[in-house]
Design a protein that fits this description.
The structure holds two protein chains of two kinds. Chain A is mostly helical. Chain A has a single domain, classed as Multidrug-efflux Transporter Regulator, Chain: A, Domain 2. Helix content of chain A is 63%, strand content 2%. In chain A, helix 5 packs across helix 6. The longest helix of chain A is centred in the last third of the chain and has 24 residues. Chain B is α+β, with helices and mostly antiparallel strands. Chain B folds into three domains: 123 residues, Helix Hairpins, CATH 1.10.287; 78 residues, Urease metallochaperone UreE, N-terminal domain (HSP40/DNAj peptide-binding domain); 101 residues, Urease metallochaperone UreE, N-terminal domain (HSP40/DNAj peptide-binding domain, Sandwich). Chain B is built from nine helices and eleven strands. In chain B, the strands form four sheets. Chain B has a four-stranded mixed β-sheet with strand order 6-7-11-10. Chain B has a three-stranded mixed β-sheet with strand order 1-5-4. In chain B, strands 2-3 form a two-stranded antiparallel ribbon. In chain B, a hairpin with a 2-residue loop joins strand 6 and strand 7. In chain B, helix 2 packs antiparallel against helix 3. Chain B is flat and about 85 Å long. Classes of the chains: A mainly alpha, B alpha+beta. The interface between A and B is large, with 37 and 51 residues.
Chain lengths: 104, 327
């Protein structure tokens, strides 16, 4: 047990220490560059950086992208449908956070 | 192994048309999709629905299922007859396996034993992949990890267990358990990701392995609620403490602190302890801790206690709590 403790893996916190490039996001989601571009143009992903080559994505974008891919696959939604679902899910999340702040 | 009634799962009769099956599936999928549903058993239900749909939407699989399964009821002990599937050709050497959700790594590795026994190795999406000879970096993998609030306050080393799909010599994909010791960094927040370089799928042809992304979730805590970097805790007060003000001990994940409650505090008021939420990471700022005030009433279970309440009632004869609340 003690020995394995020394070998504990140290990762990077994506949200704090990394900004994912388009290439990294493609790899992380197992998706093509065109597919990522489609979600950017749909407004689902909002990378920083001006040009396509300079795009940088947050860890939140990673979560959002993976949710978007599951929703479009499992519910057979088109991109605007997924975008709408994600916006509504965000709203629910915000409302629930407000409830949590009140009392549990 | 138990027989699964896929018609029952989708709530359609055995005579349902292709369109009726699609309709029933869509409706249930929207209801139980784990990204959308808040139901506790959503993930399990969704897997079942997906598996049923995978079989019933495909005319060949449905025909095979109907043939082998006629006469069985859901939950009944079931073994497929030997060579039961002779004469059935599943398209493309095996279709997609049911869309696995939350499974580690690839998709479609979470089918039931029942599905496996019928549509087995050939139905495994993963196994149908062509062999790669060219050097190719391994895929990135994803997993969720539940950590304690305490780990995020202080940092910790945790042993986590992952189920990893592995292709056996016969081309069949099996789930293998893999244990990893991972450092949980101090100040990590729910929903954040840890990227472990080179801990994803191995590469081929000498190419490097993929990365492993761990999504951090917090175990629910009986006392504390987390919102981003901020932490909320209920602080019960006696009526006189709330009315007259008091200095009380409040529990925080960092230990007990003394908190001064201003006089005339109402229930629901939040007292902020700056910087006592989740610790800062790097140059960031720490979260805050909020004590949400609640009023606890002592029981009126002795004569003396009842007298005390009665004397309050006469002292505050003009007090109408309904009107005071503006309701």
């Amino acid at each position: 047990m003690d020995e394995s403790r020394h070998l504990a893996l140290r990762g990077s916190v994506v949200e704090d220490e990394l900004a994912l490039t388009t290439f990294e996001l493609c790899r992380a989601c197992n998706a093509s560059e065109e597919y990522i571009e489609m979600w950017v143009s749909e407004g689902v992903l909002q990378p920083s950086g001006g040009s396509r080559e300079q795009w940088r994505f947050t860890g939140q974008a990673l979560t959002r992208m993976r949710t978007a891919m599951r929703l479009s696959r499992d519910l057979d939604l088109n991109a605007p449908g997924v975008a709408l679902a994600l916006d509504l899910l965000d709203e629910i999340e915000a409302l629930e956070a407000r409830l949590r702040r009140r009392s549990g | 192994m138990q027989y699964k009634d896929y018609y029952e799962t989708l709530g359609v009769p055995k005579t349902a048309t292709h369109d009726e099956i699609k309709q029933a599936y869509r409706k249930l999928a929207r209801k139980y999709h784990p990204d959308v549903s808040k139901l506790a058993d959503a993930e399990t239900r969704f897997k079942e629905i997906n598996e049923a749909n995978e079989v019933l939407k495909d005319p060949e699989k449905r025909a095979a299922y109907d043939q082998v399964g006629s006469g069985f009821k859901a939950g009944q002990e079931f073994q497929p007859p030997p060579n039961w599937d002779a004469g059935f050709e599943f398209r493309g050497g095996g279709g997609e396996a049911p869309g696995g959700f939350g499974s580690f790594g690839g998709e479609g590795v979470d089918a039931s034993d029942f599905f496996e026994s019928l549509f087995g190795a050939r139905a495994r999406g993963g196994a149908a992949r062509p062999r790669r000879n060219a050097a190719m970096q391994g895929e990135d993998h994803h997993a969720k990890v539940l950590v304690d609030l305490d780990d995020a306050y202080h940092g910790a080393e945790r042993s986590i267990s992952l189920r990893v799909p592995k292709e056996g010599p016969d081309g069949r994909v099996v789930l293998e358990e893999r244990r990893l010791d991972v450092h949980i960094p101090k100040g990590i927040r729910p929903g954040q990701h840890l990227r472990l370089a080179g801990q994803g799928a191995p590469g081929s042809g000498g190419a490097p392995a993929g990365d492993l992304y761990l999504e951090i979730e917090f175990k629910p805590h009986p006392a504390y609620r987390v919102d981003g970097a901020d932490v909320y805790v209920d602080l019960p007060l006696a009526p006189w403490e709330a009315a007259l003000g008091a200095t009380v001990d409040a529990q925080t994940p960092d230990g007990t602190v003394q908190l001064s409650v201003p006089k005339g505090s109402a229930a629901g008021r939040k007292l902020r302890l700056k910087g006592r939420g989740l610790p800062a990471r790097g140059k960031g700022t720490p979260g805050d801790l909020y004590a949400v005030l609640a009023i606890a009433l002592p029981a009126a279970d002795t004569d003396k206690a009842r007298d005390a309440y009665a004397s309050m009632a006469s002292t505050f004869a003009g007090f109408d709590p309904r009107r005071a609340r503006g309701g």
